[in-house]
Design a protein that fits this description.
This is Alcohol dehydrogenase superfamily, zinc-type. Keywords: Metal-binding, Zinc. The chain is an alpha/beta fold. 31% of the residues lie in helices and 20% in strands. The chain folds into 2 domains: 56 residues, NAD(P)-binding Rossmann-like Domain (Rossmann fold, 3-Layer(aba) Sandwich), CATH 3.40.50.720; 34 residues, no CATH class. The chain has 4 helices and 5 strands. The longest helix has 10 residues.
Length: 114
Amino acid sequence: MTGRGADNCFECVGPASVVQEAYACWWGKTIVLGADKPGSEVTLPSTDILHSGKTLLGSLFGGIKPRSDIPVLLKRYELQLDEFVTHEVSFEDINKAFDLLNDGHCLRCVIRMD
């Protein structure tokens, strides 16, 4: 489409084979957002890294550091998350909650454990 490739490539699925393909397909920065199963390995040609300047970046949780950043974000809580809850059901009606979500009639459903 561009005639020369893109400046950034985002891999959002996760399998090592897809990461390798995304990295091989173009010249620039590949950002990995997807997660493969633990222990999976990605193999890359060293010549791509040394000669072309290609970059492979991982971005877990959008790049935040959960241990230090989440407490700060909680203190700065400004988003009214309660407004996103559109339904509440009891645990006995959990299947109804899934039906509401699957049918697109619910944004977020809270399941009460009473």
